[in-house]
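ARCHIVE CARD
CATEGORY: sequence design from structure
SOURCE FIELD: tokenized fold
FIELD CONTENT:
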């Protein structure tokens, strides 16, 4: 079949002084493929491995690869066999990934992750608790460090000192990301994890300078960004952030999100950041507590590149770019099963079927991870 060079998603774009060869982005997805250990607290099961090197390198033809969510601290961790960025071994493992992606012509950002109330105290032997902006327990089911289903715990409301310490955890993790060779970092502010719980009124009931007004609820994110810029591991235009105003994941959704998140976009615009990554699609669950926040809503407020994400097809992604609502398009499930997704889009090649749900984030090794075929022309 003939190629379609007119696709806007295949055009280059410059972010942070680096030219991305196209506007197709690999979504950050927790895949839990670190090597399992008998002891769930064995730090070996937080290190990137050769399988992860292969997975990311296979997908290096995208304009930007965003890593899976990566824990910045013990207290921020809480997913078995998910990677961390805390130790020399973590750095060494990630460096092998990044070096291989670079050798294949790709660019890669690390996603910085604090799970907040979605974690479990069994992951945190130093404190034996979990934290959040307010002591509000998540509805649903939790998991301990043996991957057993448990009743969710009520988080401890963070003190101001806790908040300041956590800001420094982000700084230390970002220094290690730089040491590992990442091109930049993405701050995970989505899906009901710690920063999202500060942003949303349903989970932030604080009465101090970090709660109440929309200005106060964005303060924690601002302090993280300002600290990273001041530290200087990366310039502002190599720091992105991700938000999910429409989603239900993590028991989230607030009645004022349609006001809050455009305000977040406007507030963060002043820093000259790499991009705003918006989970605007409704395919990951929609809370219906207010009107959905669209890519265009945040594009009007954010003076920088916008990445849109969730449920995009080739056609809808191309439409988002052509309409001006977004500058880059981010794919998850299609990129899992199509390691050569940009080439398939460009050449009108058919896609492999979506992966089985069990392969998304269960420790199935190469199965459903690196075993999807590249397209071969007849």
């Amino acid at each position: 079949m003939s190629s379609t060079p007119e696709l806007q998603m295949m055009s280059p774009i410059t972010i942070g002084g680096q030219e991305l060869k196209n506007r197709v982005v690999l979504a950050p997805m927790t895949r839990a493929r670190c090597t399992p250990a008998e002891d769930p607290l064995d730090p070996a099961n937080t290190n990137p491995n050769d399988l992860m090197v292969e997975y990311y390198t296979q997908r290096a033809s995208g304009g930007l690869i965003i890593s899976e969510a990566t824990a910045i601290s013990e207290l921020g961790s809480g997913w078995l066999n998910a990677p961390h960025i805390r130790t020399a071994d973590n750095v060494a493992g990630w460096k092998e990934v990044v070096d291989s992606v670079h050798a294949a012509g790709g660019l890669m950002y690390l996603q910085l992750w604090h799970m907040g109330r979605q974690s479990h105290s069994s992951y945190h032997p130093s404190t034996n608790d979990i934290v959040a902006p307010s002591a509000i327990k998540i509805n649903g089911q939790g998991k301990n460090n043996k991957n057993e289903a448990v009743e969710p715990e009520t988080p401890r409301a963070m003190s101001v000192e806790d908040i300041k310490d956590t800001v420094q955890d982000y700084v230390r993790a970002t220094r290690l990301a730089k040491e590992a060779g990442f091109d930049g970092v993405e701050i995970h502010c989505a899906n009901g994890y710690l920063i999202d719980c500060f942003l949303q009124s349903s989970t932030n009931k604080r009465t101090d300078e970090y709660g109440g007004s929309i200005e106060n609820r964005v303060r924690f994110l601002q302090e993280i960004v300002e600290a990273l810029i001041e530290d200087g591991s990366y310039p502002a235009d190599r720091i992105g952030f991700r938000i999910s105003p429409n989603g239900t994941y993590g028991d989230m959704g607030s009645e004022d999100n349609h006001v809050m998140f455009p305000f977040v976009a406007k507030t963060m615009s002043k820093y000259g950041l790499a991009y705003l990554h918006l989970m605007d699609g409704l395919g990951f669950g929609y809370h219906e507590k207010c009107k959905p926040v669209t890519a265009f809503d945040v594009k009007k407020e954010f003076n920088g590149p916008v990445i849109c994400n969730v449920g995009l097809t080739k056609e809808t992604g191309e439409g988002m770019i052509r309409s001006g609502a977004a500058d880059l398009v981010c794919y998850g499930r299609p990129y899992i099963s199509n390691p050569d997704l940009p080439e398939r889009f460009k050449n009108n090649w058919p896609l492999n079927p979506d992966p089985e749900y069990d392969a998304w984030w269960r420790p199935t090794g190469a199965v459903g991870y690196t075993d999807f075929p590249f397209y071969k022309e007849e």
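CARD ANNOTATION: The first helix runs from residue 50 to 58. The first strand starts at residue 13 and ends at 15.
SHELF: design records, drawer C
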